[in-house]
Amino acid sequence: MYMPRHYQETRSEALHGLVDAYPFATVVTHADGELTANHLPFERVGAVLHGHVARGNEMAALDGAPVLVIFRGPHGYVSPNWYLTKHETGREVPTWNYAVVHVHGRLKVIEDATWLRALLERLTDRHEASEPAPWHVSDAPEDHIEKSLRAIVGIEIAIERIEGKFKLSQNHPERNRLGVIAGLRRRDGDGDAELADWMATQETSKP
Q1: pLDDT digits (tens, 9 = 90+) for 74-122
Q2: How distant, in Å, are the alpha carbons of 25, 54, 184 from that of 89?
Q3: Which of 121, 159, 116 lies closest to 139, judged by CA?
Q4: PANTHER family, per this entry (predicted)?
Q5: 3-class SS at 5?
């Protein structure tokens, strides 16, 4: 990943925080001379990612293969009109702000039904937590659960390397960054408030 120094994020709490907040990731593998991308939610436990795929997914046959897992946080278009310096010099252009984390590791395929069921229960409980009447795995008939478990395999990826790129206008003076935050809040499109919050947090966390 192209990584200008001022966009590089190395704090483990920030990298893990993005992974935990945006668990739906893209998994890139290479087999038989082809690159393949799959998309699935993960659970992070320390320095290990857990997930599952359909038994027919090509990843189920790639035990031990190197993988790249891409987690994408908030992102959005940035207008040059939001930079105060643009109104002074005109020397600004549009860009796109975003935060991403890349995880490198090796794929481990898990066939253990007990492990799989526990994973599904944890994932379901997490994502059902905001529902007025959360659904639980145990709500389904037992034979249906067993059939569903036979149709999937577990995925485990120990994190060997993790890198983050938080492109949040760090290459601009503070007044321009504050202008971008204000512009995002004013536009208030899909994800704009979220991106503005990330930028604002970065401003308040600076020494």
Answers
A1: 999 999 999 998 778 877 899 999 999 999 999 999 999 999 999 999 9
A2: 40, 55, 22
A3: 121
A4: PROTEASE SYNTHASE AND SPORULATION PROTEIN PAI 2
A5: helix
